[in-house]
């Protein structure tokens, strides 16, 4: 695939749970190197779409394409190995483990040493490999400014810091595309500003393409390259932040304005 080809595409994706339609005929693509945001009212299908991309859900209809390859039936762990990382709306950290160990979990699929090498850790490659992985994890810790809590149990941290640790673990996968499910939910203004800065920097400095769900419209408008709007599981607008916010159906969904016939 060429560099100009989309890194990810959803092709006429629909998702049903019994008689409930979570998504209906949603199509879009994400270009390499952009920050692509999905917005919409509660229950619009945003997390359902991300779950289809990550492999947690399988679309009832349609397909998910990764760099032109159909991955609709590829398992979640295989998608991580392909280069898709994610965070969760509800924190999914191991509370009893240290910050460092939580982040190291994100490196697991990158480890090549087997059981025998692990048993002979002090004698060879496994030791060198772990040291190399720890070095990269320490770079992430420095980037997210969590050095002071690197040895603390994750469950003892403030909510804002735990959000950073979850982002660190997703970054540790070395993904080409990172899926962020409401990364700023529950944060105060200062924490949101820090997280927005981290997201922009991991996009620009670390070269990660970002697909983000976020309710803070100020942040979405400030940092997104393009925005897609879902409402009741259907796509109602896609484009630049300015184009989307001027769209009459978006203004209706968010501001209650009447749409002219």
TrEMBL record:
Instruction: Name a single GO cellular component.
Output: plasma membrane
Q: Specify one Pfam family.
A: ABC_tran
Q: Which domain of life is it from?
A: Bacteria
Domain called ABC transporter: residue spans: 8-257
Which terms are listed as keywords in the entry? ATP-binding, Nucleotide-binding, Transport
Alphabetical list of InterPro entries matching this protein: AAA+_ATPase, ABC_AA/LPS_Transport, ABC_transporter-like_ATP-bd, BCA_ABC_TP_C, P-loop_NTPase
* Record-level Gene Ontology MF annotations: ATP binding; ATP hydrolysis activity
Which interval of the chain is the signal sequence?
none
Q: Which PANTHER family match?
A: ABC TRANSPORTER ATP-BINDING PROTEIN, CONSERVED COMPONENT OF ABC TRANSPORTER FOR NATURAL AMINO ACIDS-RELATED
Q: What is this protein called?
A: Amino acid/amide ABC transporter ATP-binding protein 1 (HAAT family)
- Provenance organism: Humitalea rosea
